[in-house]
Design brief:
1 helix, mainly beta, globular, 3% helix, disordered N terminus, nine-stranded parallel beta sheet
Length: 274
């Protein structure tokens, strides 16, 4: 489905009736491409009791996608990312969304992909009991400003790759703000994994804010994993960062149980007491 109108509002009833979203029985998924338009979902349920090939909401150049009070549940993803922001000038938000029992199989894609564009927010959102063979909860590209606020991630597992819940790169002139989030019992399972909860690379000229977050019981391999809670890479000294009032408890890794920091150049820095 490709939208040609300038603006479209979809509530739960309209979604079920007109774009094939169902809450039981067979569901072969839905794919919507939104470019140069505004697409709003409110009170929609995406998922099925049986297997689903995927849900794809793709926000392209100049588009805006807004999801409020929606649920993604009992979905087996085998195709595209669930919600993708990728294109110049894209924007929107994901607010009060619940994700439960979602699995991804060998597709190398994440649930929420904030890849490139303008400003995107993920806030007041809960993600529980989901597993990804290759991919994770949120992927952040270097060409976007992203805010992840007041979200809870619990029992999220990643089979291969880094960053059990969230990974990405902060590009030049961009800011990623992760604030008041809870990461609990999240895990990367591969032997060389890094960042059981979060793995972020801050490139030259990037800005990372990581304040008032809690990480509890996150794990990577005890034999070779690094940074069970948080793994950070600062590529140059020309960056900005903030780590304030974060709490780390009961995290397990071979190196850096709570925080593992990699600096690409000689650094003089002061980290707050954990």
């Amino acid at each position: 489905m490709t939208l040609n109108t300038q603006e479209m509002n979809i509530d739960g009833d309209v979604a079920k009736a007109k774009i094939g979203i169902v809450e039981g029985g067979e569901n072969k998924g839905v794919c919507i491409l939104c470019s140069a338009n505004t697409l709003r979902f409110e009170g929609c349920s995406f998922g099925a009791e049986s297997e689903s090939i995927g849900v794809g909401l793709i926000c392209g150049k100049g588009g805006k996608v807004e999801l409020t009070n929606c649920e993604f549940e009992n979905i087996r993803m085998t195709k595209s990312g669930m919600v993708t922001f990728d294109g110049a000038g894209v924007g929107g938000f994901i607010d009060k969304v619940i994700v439960r029992n979602v699995t991804r199989q060998n597709v190398g894609r994440s649930l929420f992909e904030l890849r490139n564009g303008g400003d995107v927010e993920v806030k007041n959102t809960t993600m529980n009991e989901s597993r990804f063979d290759d991919g994770n909860g949120i992927e952040i590209g270097e060409g976007i400003n992203a805010k992840i606020w007041n979200c809870t991630f619990k029992s999220i597992q990643r089979g291969s790759g880094n960053g059990g819940v969230l990974n990405g790169r902060v590009g030049s002139g961009k800011c990623v703000d992760i604030n008041k989030c809870v990461f609990e019992e999240c895990r990367c399972e591969s032997m060389s994994a890094i960042g059981g909860g979060v793995d972020m690379i801050v490139g030259d000229g990037g800005n990372l804010l990581f304040d008032d977050n809690k990480m509890n019981g996150c794990t990577v391999s005890e034999r070779s994993g690094k940074g069970e809670g948080l793994h950070l890479t600062f590529e140059t000294t020309n960056i900005e960062y903030s780590m304030k009032n974060d709490t780390f408890t009961n995290n397990v890794a071979e190196k850096g149980e709570d925080v593992y920091l990699v600096c690409g150049s000689p650094w003089t820095m002061l980290l707050p007491a954990l």
